[in-house]
Amino acid sequence: MTLAALLTLMGLQVLIAMSPGPAGVLTIKTAAADGARAGILLSLGLAIAIVIWAVSALAGLSLLFEIAPFLQTALRIVGAAFLIWIGFTLWRHAKEPMPDVSAAAVKRPLALIRLGLWTNIANPKALAYFAAVFTGIMPADASLGWAALIILVIFAIEFTWYCTLALVFSRPAPRRAYARAKSWLDRLFGGIVMALGARIALP
């Protein structure tokens, strides 16, 4: 494993993290509605989930999916259903008032981490991405140290990006804008997440 290969992987991961998806939508919505701490807790769950997929790719889980493709199909459908449910929940509660920021982050930190975790676990296409990237970049004889460094880098990139979103959209101006248009924005966010969930369901 060379430094150039690591930098290539880092560049790819930054682009993937920044690409639009349910994780980014939920981070923006959570930060604007519940504040920075809630957004950061959600970000932690999102980053942990990506690490789980990366470790699974290194461990060869993608080979299991090739041998038994119905497992991947089942996971994809379950994940899509979860995202559609999240989107529907956002839509259904669109007219509810803005929550108390301190209560949102203090009373349910584990719930926020779990939401982030399951949101990114719901997309098994991440496994295919990591399997392809690792096959193309990592040599077969890569050491355990290199593998650990790659996992750490992936976590750092994901966590940093979503925390950045959380910090930006939890500032007073974005929160005020969100509060003024909450019902419409929550319907928009809900519709986007449901559409992305439906897209994941497709092979």
TrEMBL record:
Membrane topology: Multi-pass membrane protein
Record keyword Transmembrane helix present: yes
Superkingdom of the organism of origin: Bacteria
Upper lineage: Bacteria, Pseudomonadati, Pseudomonadota, Alphaproteobacteria, Rhodobacterales
Residues passing through the membrane, by range: 37-61, 73-91, 144-163
MF GO annotations: amino acid transmembrane transporter activity
Name of protein: Threonine/homoserine/homoserine lactone efflux protein
Keyword Cytoplasm: no
Cellular component, GO annotation: plasma membrane
